[in-house]
Write a structure and sequence with these properties.
- Two copies of one chain form a homodimer.
- The first copy, chain A, has about 170 residues and is of the alpha+beta class.
- Chain A folds into two domains: about 70 residues, Winged helix-like DNA-binding domain superfamily/Winged helix DNA-binding domain (Arc Repressor Mutant, subunit A, Orthogonal Bundle); about 80 residues, Alpha-Beta Plaits, CATH 3.30.70.920.
- The first copy, chain A, has six helices and six strands.
- Chain A has a four-stranded antiparallel sheet.
- The first copy, chain A, is elongated and about 55 Å long.
- Chain A starts with 18 loop residues before the first helix and ends in a 7-residue tail after the last helix.
- The structure holds a DNA duplex (30 and 30 nucleotides).
DNA sequence: GACCTCATTGAGCATATTGTCCACTCATTT
DNA sequence: AAATGAGTGGACAATATGCTCAATGAGGTC
């Protein structure tokens, strides 16, 4: 139905987003609880177009959700740390990841290049509380050693908008 | 107006969220474009209550937004890397952070414990493209050296829900 | 006990939005 | 020339929203 797209860049290829998509995402990022109708007015397009673009981006996985973004800091979790895990090679990543996923304070886990390592982003209520969380991580079967760095400040909070603004200017290569 | 709250845990303190707030966040996380009225039906509370809870959480900064979550991967940025920056002590963090913020592929920057270091999360279209991004980072004035690890897989994608579910069970200490 | 504050409820009302049709245009593809 | 798909503009009923109001109940204070 909407697997491949020809409008826009001419060449038939796996399209990402076009300038209108980008404007729509930017608009919604700025005032997220805008309705479809209001968006169409701001962008000077028909309501159905906005509807279609949104549906398409969701279907394609460009937009993964509209969920409420919760700030762990406001919940009392003021400490953020990045924990590098050295794991036992034999056991594989999955069982370790599964156990890490069971710890609420573990917000994110990546497997990374290097000697069987993983990188986890964790939060805690305080530095003392961080020790508790790290202890839980060390207790995970398969974890050999951990080393953590604490995030003191976050001069650039997570964002995707600059990327969204950039993409439509760089037609798929 | 709603600076301090006494309902719930009895003790007067900086409250975070209560079980109803948590249920509301979970509900919206699951089906984000639900309306207020629909939420009130699902949670068996009055519409005004949902309205009030949402407003309160937004006002308190617990909910920082409802923006569309964009997947860099779907935009063609399949490579994620964590870059540790060693920066020149003299210049300070801010000018470096400002320049990093100007690079769209830099999604996030933290200052971390250690010898004047920063940690940046970057994405790129390919490993070759990552080189281009890292070159841009190295070119930033004040950056002495970088070392990067590539995220091969993400067994636990970023999430906050487990935390949200946990908080109301653990009254502020 | 009397009083007060505040979250919550349930109701009502005018307005705005949604979901879903339709016919039409336009550019591109075949 | 015909077909395709995106976009438009309009219409419709059904629904949701913002807003107000009075009443209730729980928790505090005096």
């Amino acid at each position: 139905m909407l697997n491949e797209v020809r409008s826009g860049w001419g060449i038939l290829c796996t399209m990402t987003i076009d300038p209108l998509d980008a404007r729509l995402v930017e608009l919604l990022a700025g005032e997220p609880r805008l309705g479809v109708l209001e968006c169409s007015r701001r962008l000077n397009v028909a309501r159905g177009t906005v509807q279609a673009r949104l549906d398409r981006m969701v279907a394609r996985g460009v937009i993964t959700g509209f969920g409420p973004e919760v700030d762990p800091g406001a919940l009392g979790y003021d400490v953020t740390a990045f924990v590098t895990l050295e794991i036992r090679q034999v056991s594989g990543h999955e069982p370790v990841a599964d156990q890490l996923a069971a710890i609420p304070e573990v917000l994110e886990v990546h497997t990374i290049t290097g000697s069987g390592d993983m990188l986890a982003r964790v939060v805690a209520r305080s530095n003392a509380d961080l020790q508790r969380v790290i202890d839980q991580i060390v207790d995970v079967r398969g974890v050999v050693r951990t080393s953590s760095v604490i995030a003191l400040d976050t001069p650039v909070p997570y964002r995707v908008l600059p990327l969204v603004a950039e993409v439509p200017r760089q037609p798929p290569h």
